[in-house]
Amino acid sequence: MSKLGLIAGGGDLPREIIKACQGADRPIFVVRLRGMADPDLAGEDGYDSGVAELGRTFKALKGQGCKAVCFAGNVPRPDFATLRPDLRGMAALPGAIAAARHGDDALLRFLAGEFEKEGFVVEGADQVVAGLTLGEGPLGRVVPREGDVLDIDRAMTAARAIGGLDIGQAAVAARGVVLALEAQEGTDAMLARCAQLPAALRGAAGAPAGVLAKAPKPIQDRRIDLPTIGPATVVAAARAGLAGIVGEAGALLVVDRPAVIQTADELGLFVFGLPPKSDR
């Protein structure tokens, strides 16, 4: 099994990948993106890198014998004016800026291509961690009610629509009305906005209503930046008064699955995997 280079941003997904590699006795080297990776990764065998320091990163990965890389974690869109690229990063910068004009997904595809040019195989997080994606049906004990069906459809339709424009991956609908669309702020911030809406528009404790839907973008490279949920997502959805969370089976990453199930069951939310769009 080849040594994996983990390009780590923020959030819990990088830690999930590290645990999986350790459990499988797969060697791993962590490239901690400076200012983005969580501080608790500092103790892992690895290297701190700026997002535009491609040359140094490639050299470090090759020096460690890494044949494959995996991108994981939250990486906000960079401010290109403040980047400090090395020579290899400088060569890639015009292409990155051009790709970014077409959206975040185009930028990520461009960056993955730069690693492939250097001979690295790009692996998706779900390829590294077995069973990481949501399956079809309920994840815990709670299941959608008949009254949730319309909200599931509205929220998923909206999430796919903004994905087609490379805007975001998530949407919220309640009582048949789309309440929020995800953009650069991310899912947690979008749910916090929902929690501030008038009670007449959304659910509340004891009377939940509405659904968070997350869907991959239609042209997305599924090895990079698949939609993700974790325990914090479930808590944020409950604070917004929602009844549940849905995603496409096989296309939604579930980080810390036992905690997601426990949290959802305790809070009375459903987490439900829909058949892939082509199957419905």
Automatic annotation (TrEMBL):
Its Enzyme Commission number(s) read 3.6.1.54
Q: Does the keyword ATP-binding apply?
A: no
Start and end of every LpxI C-terminal domain? 136-271
Alphabetical list of Pfam families matching this protein: LpxI_C, LpxI_N
* InterPro entries (UniProt xref): LpxI, LpxI_C, LpxI_C_sf, LpxI_N
For this UniProt record, the keywords arranged alphabetically read as follows: Hydrolase
The protein's matches in Gene3D superfamilies, at most eight in alphabetical order, are given as: 3.40.140.80, 3.40.50.20
GO MF, any single term: hydrolase activity
Q: Where is the LpxI N-terminal domain?
A: 3-131
- Which top-rank group of organisms is this from? Bacteria
Protein name in the entry: UDP-2,3-diacylglucosamine diphosphatase LpxI
Naturally occurring in which organism (per UniProt): Phenylobacterium montanum
Which gene carries the instructions for this protein? lpxI
